[in-house]
Q: What sequence folds into this?
């Protein structure tokens, strides 16, 4: 079994966040639970689609997510980003710095770059490039989702329906239901921490 | 029909990017031919064209372009739309050629200038895009959208001081618009200039009542400055805190921010409210 498993909810919400703002750099955090040395990414909390390089609201959001995660017995084990330029598949410098602050909270946090080109309907892979921090540097795990010679992969989606379900949700424009912290700051009635209606939609998809 | 037309007009006014909705609203107008009876028919056509390009509906875009070209045979404004089609189908060099031709004929052509910058940016040639945009701003220094675009191009290269400069230029022209003060506050905070960040966040809440983002900023920065405590002269300079408010004032600002945020969060859902309140208590 893989060391890192990504649930449908986490994957779908990250992808839908990208789909809502296809022209923008978009980023968010991933909540994780750890068991027997294995890490499960259970949820995605979308942060921003504007001013993603600025730190103040990231700091506020991170602090609030820490409180929220603690209440729910989870950790903030991941960060995801998709760059507005679809050809950029390296972890951007500002993301590297933001993800580094995450390490202060969760020392084995993983940063995921989303390769937007791999989100196309015909794609057969998740389009996530994991970056792990070793020797204070973020290093890509280029074939993180590919099965290695032992027949397992370091990273995996929780089952073989996740990809298809996520694609279907995008095709159905489910992204209207996702609200990030940016949107919450304009309208505090939007539940950016949970996005409960979207969670329901994903469960029944 | 009229409400669809109104909505389309609202979206044009607000400059929001909502291509899917635009297409949905325009579809019945186009299919029934009712669009020809709309007052702003040509603006709507142009709007639908851009939305079609955004949604990858190239055939629709081309159809509309033919209609526009028929009506406005000689128009530069229509001509640059051909460039956009080229960009959308992956023929950037054709587009570039067209924009260059338009600029050679008239170097003050705003639309061609902007398309060229956008094309360079989309191709990843941000340095050239910056160069082109700076030239444009030499003659159009009050185009705040251009300054914002330049700001974002500088940020691509992590050139924060240069990005800040762009926002400063906009603030000089539009000092009463809280949005730009907000942007400036956030760049300053990112650069470690807490003193200016605080001033700018305060300006935001002055200009925009109960601005949640603004008050979060006030509290974040005031608390941070209090946390830093006694700094050396050099540390003060670096953080822009040479003339920072006294701790007592900072505490009152932090309290004010807390009060206003608690008030704002009254209408929020359970989870957001509890988490925000927990954060405010920390």
A:
């Amino acid at each position: 079994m893989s060391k890192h498993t990504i649930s449908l909810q986490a994957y779908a919400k990250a992808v839908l966040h990208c789909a809502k703002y296809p022209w923008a750099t978009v980023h968010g955090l991933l909540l994780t639970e750890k068991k027997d040395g294995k890490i499960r990414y259970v949820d995605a909390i979308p942060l921003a689609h504007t001013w993603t390089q600025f730190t103040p609201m990231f700091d506020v959001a991170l602090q609030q997510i820490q409180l929220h995660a603690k209440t729910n017995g989870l950790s903030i084990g991941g960060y995801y980003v998709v760059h507005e330029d679809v050809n950029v598949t390296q972890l951007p410098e500002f993301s590297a710095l933001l993800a580094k602050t995450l390490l202060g909270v969760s020392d084995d946090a993983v940063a995921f770059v989303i390769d937007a080109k791999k989100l196309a309907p015909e794609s057969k892979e998740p389009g996530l490039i994991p970056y792990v921090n070793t020797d204070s540097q973020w290093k890509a795990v280029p074939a993180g989702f590919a099965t290695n010679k032992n027949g397992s992969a370091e990273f995996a989606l929780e089952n073989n329906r996740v990809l298809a379900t996520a694609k279907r949700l995008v095709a159905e424009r489910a992204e209207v239901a996702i609200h990030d912290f940016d949107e919450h700051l304009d309208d505090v009635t939007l539940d950016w921490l949970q996005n409960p209606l979207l969670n329901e939609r994903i469960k029944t998809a | 029909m009229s409400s669809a037309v109104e909505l389309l007009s609202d979206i044009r006014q607000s400059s929001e990017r909502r291509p899917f909705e635009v297409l949905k609203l325009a579809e019945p107008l186009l299919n029934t031919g009712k669009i020809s009876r709309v007052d702003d028919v040509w603006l709507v056509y142009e709007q639908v064209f851009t939305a079609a390009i955004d949604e990858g509906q190239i055939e629709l875009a081309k159809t509309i372009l033919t209609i526009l070209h028929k009506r406005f045979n000689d128009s530069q404004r229509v001509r640059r739309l051909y460039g956009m089609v080229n960009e959308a189908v992956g023929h950037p060099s054709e587009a570039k050629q067209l924009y260059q031709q338009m600029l050679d004929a008239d170097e003050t052509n705003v639309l061609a200038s902007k398309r060229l910058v956008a094309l360079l940016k989309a191709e990843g040639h941000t340095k050239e895009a910056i160069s082109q945009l700076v030239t444009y701003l030499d003659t159009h220094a009050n185009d705040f959208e251009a300054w914002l675009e330049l700001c974002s191009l500088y940020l691509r290269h992590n050139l924060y001081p240069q990005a800040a400069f762009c926002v400063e230029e906009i603030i000089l022209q539009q000092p009463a618009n809280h949005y730009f003060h907000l942007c400036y506050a956030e760049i300053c905070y990112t650069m470690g200039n807490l003193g200016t960040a605080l001033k700018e966040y305060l300006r935001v809440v002055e200009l925009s009542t109960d601005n949640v983002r603004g008050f979060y900023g006030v509290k974040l920065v005031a608390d941070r400055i209090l946390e830093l405590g006694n700094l050396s002269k050099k540390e003060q300079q670096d953080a822009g805190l040479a003339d920072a408010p006294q701790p007592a004032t900072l505490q009152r600002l932090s309290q004010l921010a807390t009060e206003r945020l608690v008030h704002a969060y009254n209408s929020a859902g359970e989870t957001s409210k509890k988490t925000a309140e927990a954060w405010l208590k920390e």
Notes: The first strand of chain A starts at residue 4 and ends at 6. Helices of chain A lie at 8-20, 56-71, 93-103, 162-171, 181-186, 196-203.
